[in-house]
Amino acid sequence: MSNCIFCKIAEGTIPSKKIYEDEDLVAFHDLNPQAPAHFLVIPKKHISTIMDAQQSDIQLLGKLLYTAQSLAAKLGYEQTGARFVINCKDDGGQTVHHLHVHVLAGRAMDWPPG
Ligand code: 5GP
Ligand code: ZN
Predict the structure, then answer these.
(1) Percentage of the chain surpassing pLDDT 90?
(2) Rg for the chain (alpha carbons), in Å?
């Protein structure tokens, strides 16, 4: 999608600190980290929100979550854990309308979120 910031990060036309890339996904550090480790995992395919995912995206969604957890483990958070978050639309607090999984780690998280 031409005016989507995360599509541009996936294409490499906007710079980011990438930590992982394959044919389907990109992971990169969040610009405004909320924990000692805070990165985002996105599909290269533009899907605006998790509620826009289709049945044909099931495999991609599985890969998105699996990659998020394996990157968290590779970065050393397998024992201490992490927070995996998908914000959706206005009430979910989504600001960038390209599906992304936040991975936050390196400190204890509060619950419930504000
Ligand atoms: P949301 O609120 O949509 O769930 O999260 C969007 C996230 O994207 C925010 O945590 C924000 O800091 C991050 N973000 C927004 N623009 C950029 C950018 O240009 N580069 C990177 N690396 N992160 C961004
Ligand atoms: Zn996009």
Answers:
(1) 96
(2) 14
Residue whose CB lies within 8 A of the most ligand 1 atoms, among 40, 46, 47, for a mutation test: 40
**Which residue's CA is minimally distant from atom 24 of ligand 1?**
31
The first and second tokens of residue 22, run together, are: 């394959």
Per residue in 13-39, pLDDT (tens digit) is 999 999 999 999 999 999 999 999 999
Class (C level, CATH) for 5-105: alpha beta
- Ligand 1 atom closest to residue 85's alpha carbon, by position in its atom list: 4
Asked whether 43 and 34 are in contact (CB, 8 A), the reply is: no
- State the DSSP code for 98: S
Provide the whole-model pTM. 0.98
The confidence score (pLDDT) of residue 57 equals 98
Domain spans, the chain: 5-105
